[in-house]
Design brief:
The structure is a single chain. The strands form 4 sheets. A 5-stranded antiparallel β-sheet has the order 6-7-10-8-9. Strands 1-2-5-3 form a 4-stranded mixed β-sheet, with helices on one face. Strands 4-14-15 form a 3-stranded mixed β-sheet. The chain has 10 helices and 15 strands. 45% of the residues are buried. The two termini are 34 Å apart. It is α+β, with helices and mostly antiparallel strands. The chain is globular. It folds into 3 domains: 81 residues, 2-Layer Sandwich (Uridine Diphospho-n-acetylenolpyruvylglucosamine Reductase, domain 2); 114 residues, Uridine Diphospho-n-acetylenolpyruvylglucosamine Reductase, domain 3, CATH 3.30.465.10; 88 residues, Alpha-Beta Complex (Uridine Diphospho-n-acetylenolpyruvylglucosamine Reductase, domain 1).
C-alpha cells in the first residue's frame, strides 16, 4: 500500500535513499527491523520537502540522528525514516557564538568548543549522539543540559515550514524541551558559550571521559542510561543505577537483553537481543523497584513503533501482555 508514494518520494532530489534498510545498523542498541524507506538529506530544503510530502501523503515519518536513544521495534518502521547525519553536520565558531547543524556529532562539537577556548560544553564530550537529538531531549550529563547554552534553534516544523525558536520558546527543562512530540526536525542551533581556560576545559573533559570509561559499558551495544533520574528520587534513594543495583538486578537477563554488570542503569545487547527482550526487561525492572521502594522508574530511552509512533519505552513495556 505504501510502495507507490514511497517510490514517488524517492524519485525526488531529497538526499541519499535506501529501501528496506535494516535499522539495527542505525542505532546504538543494534536492534530493529527494516525501514520501508530511509533518507539521509543533505540540505534544509530537502528536509522540508520530505516532511511536507510525508504529511500530504499521510505517511509515517520518524526522524533520527545516530539512534543513540532509540529502541526500534523488531518489525522496523512501515514508512519513512529521515536520518539527520553527516551530510548536515557543519560547525562554525565566531567569538562566543557557535552555529551547529543538527547532524553534527556531539563529541566533535565539544572538542571544537574547547579548542576555541569556550566553556559550557564539557559535560557533552562523552555523549555519543547528534546535536539535533541532544537539543530535542535537552541532553547532557552531570544533570546539566545543552539548553543552558542555546540562544535559538532552527527547525522544520510538522508542516514543512522553517522556524527559528528562541531559548525561551524551547522551554528547556531536565531532559525535556517543548520540541518533543511536535513533529519538528532540529536542523540548526545557535549556542553562546562563555570564554574559559583551554587547559581547564580540556582537564574537565579528560576527567569526564575517564569516568565514563570506568563506569559505563563500552564493548556491548547499549543506548546509555535507560531510566530517568528525578530530583525527588535522587534526593531520597539515589540515582536509578544505584537503586537497580541495590535491588539485586545487575546481570538480570531476558533473551539477549541484560542489565549491565558494570552499571545497572544500562541494558546491553549481549547477543541477538530483540526489542521485545529489552521491553520485557524494562518492565521487570520497573515492577521490582515499584514493589521494593515505591518509586516509578520512567524511561529516558524512546521506543519507536512500526507505525512510527515514538514514546518513552516504559509506556510500551507496560502495555505488553503478561507472561
Amino acid at each position: 500500500m505504501l510502495a507507490e508514494p514511497l517510490r514517488e518520494l524517492a524519485a525526488k532530489p531529497v538526499g541519499q535513499i535506501a529501501f528496506n534498510e535494516p535499522l539495527d545498523a542505525h542505532n546504538s542498541w543494534r536492534i530493529g527491523g527494516p525501514a520501508d524507506l530511509l533518507i539521509a538529506p543533505e540540505t534544509v530544503l530537502q528536509v522540508a520537502e520530505v516532511v511536507r510530502f510525508a504529511r500530504q501523503a499521510q505517511l509515517p515519518l520518524v526522524v533520527i540522528g545516530q539512534g543513540t536513544n532509540l529502541l526500534f521495534d523488531d518489525a522496523g518502521v512501515r514508512g519513512i525514516v529521515l536520518k539527520i547525519g553527516a551530510q548536515m553536520a557543519a560547525i562554525e565558531i565566531h567569538g562566543r557564538r557557535i552555529s551547529v547543524e543538527g547532524g553534527a556529532w556531539v563529541p566533535q562539537l565539544a572538542r571544537l568548543s574547547m579548542r576555541a577556548g569556550l566553556s559550557g560544553l564539557e559535560h557533552c564530550i562523552g555523549i555519543p549522539g547528534t546535536v539535533g537529538g541532544l537539543v530535542m531531549m535537552n541532553g547532557g550529563s552531570q544533570r546539566r543540559g545543552i539548553g543552558e547554552n542555546i540562544k535559538n534553534v532552527t527547525i522544520v516544523d510538522a508542516t514543512g515550514e522553517l522556524q527559528v525558536l528562541s531559548h525561551e520558546e524551547c522551554q528547556f527543562s531536565y531532559r525535556h524541551s517543548a520540541l518533543q512530540g511536535t513533529g519538528a526536525v532540529v536542523v540548526k542551533a545557535e549556542l553562546d558559550c562563555p570564554l574559559g581556560d583551554i587547559r581547564a576545559i580540556r582537564r574537565d573533559m579528560v576527567c569526564d571521559l575517564r569516568t565514563r570509561r570506568q563506569k559505563f559499558p563500552r564493548k556491548q551495544p547499549n543506548c546509555g542510561s535507560v531510566f530517568l533520574s528525578t530530583a525527588e528520587m535522587h534526593a531520597s534513594v539515589g540515582p536509578p543505577g544505584k537503586v537497580i543495583e541495590e535491588a539485586g538486578l545487575k546481570g538480570t537477563r531476558i533473551g539477549g537483553a541484560e542489565v549491565s554488570g558494570q552499571h545497572a542503569n544500562f541494558i546491553v545487547n549481549s547477543g541477538a537481543a530483540t526489542s521485545l527482550d529489552v521491553l520485557r526487561l524494562i518492565r521487570q525492572i520497573r515492577q521490582t523497584i515499584r514493589q521494593r521502594i515505591g518509586f516509578e522508574l520512567d524511561c529516558e530511552v524512546r521506543y519507536v513503533s512500526p507505525q512510527g509512533q515514538i514514546m518513552p519505552a516504559h509506556i510500551q513495556a507496560d502495555s505488553l501482555p503478561q507472561g
